[in-house]
Amino acid sequence: MQLQQTDIRAAAFVSVPSRTLAADGGVIGPEQAARYLGLHRRELGYLLEAGLLAPSGRSVAGTVRFAVSALDAVAAQPLDWAAARSAEGRRPSPWRELAGPASERARLVDGVTAALRADGVDAWARYSAAADRWTLDWAPAHDGGPSRGEVMALLPLRLARAVDAQRVVLLGPVGQTMHWAHDMLQPGVACVVDVETTGLTPADRVIEVAAVDAHDGSVLIDTLVHPGPGITIPAGATRVHGITDTMVAGARPWSVVLPEVLAAVGERVLLAYNSDFDKRMTLGHARALGCDPGRLRSAQAWQCLMKRRSMWLSTTTRLKLGGRHRALGDAIAARELLLSLRGRPPSTLTARQPEEEQVPPGQAVDAPVCP
Predict the structure, then answer these.
(1) What is the pLDDT of residue 349?
(2) Which of 38, 188, 287, 352 lies at a 20 to 30 A Cα distance from 331?
(3) Positive or negative CA dihedral for 211, 212, 215, 218?
């Protein structure tokens, strides 16, 4: 790439107010750093990958941080700053190969993937031409490993820098979901909950609840619930789940069943297919009766299998569970889904495109690179 010396003091870039920098010891995050240099975040990443800019540390969440002095130093480098600052996001960056050929990065990713597979790890990589980004995923072993840190230690220097630059991602949404599912399936960690109700509105009531242990599938609780005096089950709801007024006539009320649910699930994470619905209905019924919902009220106690399934399938579509529309049947079906999330989705098993057929950079498609 043709380089040119630029008077960076005369260059138009947006600087961060000095009082903000002073308040944080002259250290800023990546978005501020990009604005400070007058760049898009993408071009800042290429500086990182090339080793021209190094993070000074990380936030508690793991986000890279930069010293302003380091930004001033890199701004003095003889690079084509004008081209980088005017680069359009829809086109390849003029700094795309600042760290070396893109094909070299691809070979390095292939090498790490092959090394993991040689060590018995089911690993694969996927390239997004639109984002110029590699995602390296791997299935969890029986013990849940290897960890992200262990894989990070295998990376050659350019790829380690590319991780900070977000040109390489270790465990994307698919890989994260697989490792999350592995964690949820460990003994005592989680349970799968489902409720059936008189309807979908805040005024509707729970009429059946079930929970199974995520680890071994054992039934923790499975019972019908009386909706309350004078409350009947609409015919439309009965057509969905098959529960009738006669079936719940002798059932216990939610005020009695709720404490049993809390005792049965204990401190496990509550997994549900569309957890927003199950949480809303269980809490709404408890509040209507003046009952203490315990940890069911905590957003941190619940996690959604439907959202995780969409991440695993790389889709935003809200897919139906396909259960039996009874609480226990749906809880069992949801646990079976959890078991499947621990494995690779079909989309990652696509055969690799030959190199000469791979999509050129800038075209908005994802090209799978799989063993």
Answers:
(1) 81
(2) 287
(3) positive
Query: How big, in percent rounded to 5, are the helix, strand and coil portions of the chain?
Result: 40, 15, 45
State the Cα–Cα distance between residues 198 and 168, nearest whole angstrom.
48
* Beta-carbon contacts of residue 322 (< 8 Å; ≥ 6 apart): 333
Query: Contact 111/119 with Cβ under 8 angstroms?
Result: no
- Which among 334, 259, 256 has a CA at the least distance from the CA of 296? 259
3-state SS, residue 84: helix
Question: CA-based angle 342:345:348, to the nearest 5?
Answer: 125
At residue 169, the 3 state secondary structure works out as strand
- Within a 10 A sphere around the Cβ of 142, how many other Cβ atoms? 6
Region for residue 57 given its phi and psi (left: phi exceeds 0; alpha: psi -120 to 50; beta: otherwise): left
Could you tell me the two tokens for 164? 């900070």
- For residue range 31-44, list pLDDT tens digits in order: 999 999 999 999 99
Q: What is the pLDDT of residue 17?
A: 38
The per-residue DSSP string of 37-62 comes to HT--HHHHHHHHHTTSS---EE-TT-
Q: How many whole angstroms separate alpha carbon 103 and alpha carbon 212?
A: 49
Please name which of 231, 287, 294 lies closest in space to residue 261, comparing C-alpha atoms: 294
**Beta pairing class for 64-67 and 123-128:** unpaired
pLDDT of residue 25: 61
The DSSP string of 325-370 is SSHHHHHHHHHHHHHHHTS--GGGGSPPPPGGGSPPTTSS-EEEE-
Q: How many CB atoms lie within 10 A of CB 355?
A: 8
Q: If you write DSSP's letter for every residue of 209-244 in order, what string do you get?
A: EEEEETTT--EEEEEE-B--TT----HHHHHHH---
Q: Helices marked H in 242-341 — which ranges?
A: 245-248, 254-265, 275-289, 305-313, 327-341
CB atoms closer than 10 angstroms to residue 352:
15
The CA distance from 263 to 253, in Å, is 16
Task: From 67, 87, 90, select the one nearest 79 (Cα to Cα).
Answer: 87
Given a cut of 50, the residues of the chain with pLDDT beneath it are 1-23, 351-371
